């Protein structure tokens, strides 16, 4: 059953020069959920429903996605700007900190955000995205470079957009259905929601611009990472064809209080493919009951 047309609250806020759309539900402490590519707030549909009983759950469309502003300049997708967006979301909503839950590109932003603003992160939960230091390390290996071929294809102008638009955004459907282990996790309505979001004017270029901007940092970054002193949970679908499981090894060297939960027979789309198990692992980490 699709939850794209639920009665959850849809709102906008303005921060860091951009208008961001978000969905919210529940009351209490803030749980902020950041989606990945090629998604939007909807990828958290199972988690919003589950955790709004305990928290004020907010799932924004990241800049460039869905109903948030599409900015065409590549430099406006620098990780520093994305981090400022998250700080602005938290303060605009009237909070000083949050429980930060993030997947894929949202998770990459979350790692940088927690490093820069640890006082604003009560707990960090990342799904199928390694620590940036491990990711950059992985991009220097043939094994991960082969898995991440699309990152370099996205550096081309125009052609990636044309390919993704071809045949009614067939590439969007393939990204979910070809990678998923449990194909039933995605209904036709779910796939249409993702296609519709990517088809919004300017959205596709904006989404790809995340990669166009970040790839330069992959090979030029000299950032030194502080050891993160924020309790952190990593959840990892073991059958991720885009990011190798080996990228998780050694994460404890970057985080003081680190917990990892692997989920076998599960793809990159972990919170959508195994929502009940993901929700239970998160609840256990937060020491709350979902019943």
TrEMBL record:
The keyword Hydrolase applies. Keywords: Hydrolase. Gene3D superfamilies: alpha/beta hydrolase (3.40.50.1820). SUPFAM superfamilies: alpha/beta-Hydrolases (SSF53474). Residues 30-272 form the AB hydrolase-1 domain. It holds the Pfam family Abhydrolase_1. One of its GO terms (molecular function) is hydrolase activity. This is Alpha/beta hydrolase fold protein. It comes from Crocosphaera chwakensis CCY0110.
């Amino acid at each position: 059953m699709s939850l794209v047309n639920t009665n959850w609250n849809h709102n906008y806020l303005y921060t860091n020069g951009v208008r961001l759309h978000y969905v919210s539900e529940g009351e209490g402490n803030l749980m902020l959920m950041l989606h990945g590519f090629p998604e939007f707030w909807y990828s958290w549909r199972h988690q919003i429903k589950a955790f709004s009983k305990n928290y004020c759950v907010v799932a924004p469309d990241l800049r460039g996605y869905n109903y948030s502003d599409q900015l065409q300049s590549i430099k406006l997708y620098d990780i520093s700007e994305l981090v400022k967006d998250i700080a602005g979301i938290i303060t605009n909503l009237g909070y000083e900190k949050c429980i930060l839950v993030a997947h894929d590109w949202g998770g990459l932003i979350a790692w940088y955000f927690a490093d820069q603003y640890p006082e604003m992160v009560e707990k960090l939960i990342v799904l199928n995205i390694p620590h940036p230091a491990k990711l950059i390390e992985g991009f220097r290996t043939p094994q991960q470079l082969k898995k991440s071929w699309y990152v370099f294809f996205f550096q081309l102008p125009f052609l990636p957009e044309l390919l993704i638009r071809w045949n009614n955004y067939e590439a969007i459907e393939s990204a979910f259905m070809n990678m998923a282990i449990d194909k039933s996790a995605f209904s036709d309505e779910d796939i249409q929601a993702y296609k519709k979001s990517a088809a919004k004017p300017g959205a596709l270029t904006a989404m790809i611009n995340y990669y166009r901007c970040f790839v330069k940092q992959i090979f030029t970054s000299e950032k030194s990472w502080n050891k993160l002193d924020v309790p952190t949970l990593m959840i990892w679908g073991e059958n991720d064809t885009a990011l190798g499981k080996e990228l998780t090894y050694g994460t404890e060297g970057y985080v003081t209080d680190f917990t990892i939960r692997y989920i076998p027979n599960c793809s990159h789309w972990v919170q959508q493919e195994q929502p009940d198990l993901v929700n239970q692992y998160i609840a256990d980490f937060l020491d709350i009951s979902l019943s």
